[in-house]
């Protein structure tokens, strides 16, 4: 009986020793995977970070080799998601940088062309004028680029001019110009179209509905301009009515310009 007990204890100790060695190997493998994926964790999504935290807690409570192996599989899946997320963000960053570079170059060419041709810039806002916008739209349509033309008509400018003078109307136009210039990417090009209207050319790969949502967020906040007129303070709302026209949906630039001008005329006539 003593001999049997000794052999049973030896077998038990052997199994425990093997189990410990197996756990050590599995834990070393986990550490290797964590080291390999360390550069990916910084760009991980919130969901992946939460999964890692849960795995960490379960790893502390794991006592059986099968538990450790199951957690290893879950960790491998989580780390693979982290690597995929990192690669996706890298691709998006590369596209964004390329878009910014292209847009800045187009903006530079637009300003250079207006100066070379003597058309100059709008004296009130300093923006390129309508002729340059038309030229860029012709170029974009010929090249098949995914460009959207967004027209903004500042509301009630005619009424403000009549009641408070043209200087007040100019201040309202300038405030809207600043909002549009600051609310979008530096790769987007803003023009003074005609009267109280601005044209913004955006190059986007997204669908038109997404571009409209972007515009709504950028110009949706209510603005007000405080002016001193004739010894009294006047608070004027600064808003704009806008529309978006994808160049890809138009047969010609002439047709697009006609639609834009019709929209502007319809809004300017509204008191």
Describe this structure in words.
With 271 residues, the chain is of the alpha+beta class. It has two domains: 2-89, Substrate Binding Domain Of Dnak, Chain:A, Domain 2; 121-268, Alpha-Beta Plaits. The chain has helices at residues 2-36, 38-41, 46-61, 65-116, 130-143, 157-164, 166-183, 208-219, 253-268, and strands at residues 147-154, 189-192, 197-203, 223-229, 232-238, 240-246. The strands form two sheets. Strands 2-3-1-6 form a four-stranded antiparallel beta sheet, with helices on both faces. A hairpin with a 2-residue loop joins β4 and β5 (232-238). It is elongated.
Q: How far is the N terminus from the C terminus?
A: 108 Å
CATH architecture of the largest domain: 2-Layer Sandwich
Q: Multimeric state of these chains?
A: single chain
Helix content: 55-70%
Biggest pleated-sheet summary: 4 strands, antiparallel
Work out the strand percent.
5-15%
Q: Largest beta sheet: what is the strand line-up?
A: 2-3-1-6
Give the helix tally.
Answer: 9
Total individual domains: 2
Rounded average pLDDT: 78
User: Spans with pLDDT under 50 lasting ≥5 residues?
Assistant: none
CATH superfamily of the largest domain: Reverse transcriptase/Diguanylate cyclase domain
Order of helices and strands: HHHHHEHHEEHEEEH
Q: Choose one word for the global shape.
A: elongated
**CATH class category label of the largest domain:** Alpha Beta
**Strand tally:** 6
């Amino acid at each position: 009986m003593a001999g049997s007990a000794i052999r049973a204890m030896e077998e038990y100790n052997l199994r425990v020793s093997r189990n410990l060695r197996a756990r050590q190997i599995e834990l070393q493998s986990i550490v290797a995977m964590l080291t390999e994926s360390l550069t990916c964790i910084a760009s991980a999504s919130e969901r992946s970070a939460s999964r890692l935290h849960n795995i960490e807690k379960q790893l502390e409570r794991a006592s059986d080799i099968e538990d450790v192996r199951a957690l290893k599989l879950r960790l491998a899946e989580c780390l693979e998601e982290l690597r995929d997320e990192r690669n996706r963000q890298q691709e998006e960053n590369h596209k964004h940088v390329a878009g910014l570079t292209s847009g800045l170059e187009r903006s530079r060419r637009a300003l250079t062309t207006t100066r070379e041709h003597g058309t100059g810039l709008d004296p009130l806002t300093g923006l390129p004028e309508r002729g340059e916008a038309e030229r860029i739209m012709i170029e974009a349509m010929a090249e098949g680029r995914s460009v959207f033309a967004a027209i903004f008509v500042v509301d009630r400018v005619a009424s403000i001019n009549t009641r408070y003078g043209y200087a007040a109307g100019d201040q309202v136009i300038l405030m809207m110009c600043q909002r549009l210039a600051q609310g979008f990417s530096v790769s987007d090009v803003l023009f003074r179209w005609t009267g109280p209207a601005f044209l913004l050319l955006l190059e986007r790969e997204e669908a038109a509905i997404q571009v409209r949502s972007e515009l709504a967020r950028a110009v949706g906040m209510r603005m007000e301009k405080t002016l001193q007129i004739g010894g009294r303070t006047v608070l004027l709302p600064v808003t704009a009515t806008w529309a978006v026209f994808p160049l890809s949906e138009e047969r010609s630039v002439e047709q697009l310009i006609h639609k834009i001008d019709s929209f502007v005329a319809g809004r300017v006539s509204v008191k």
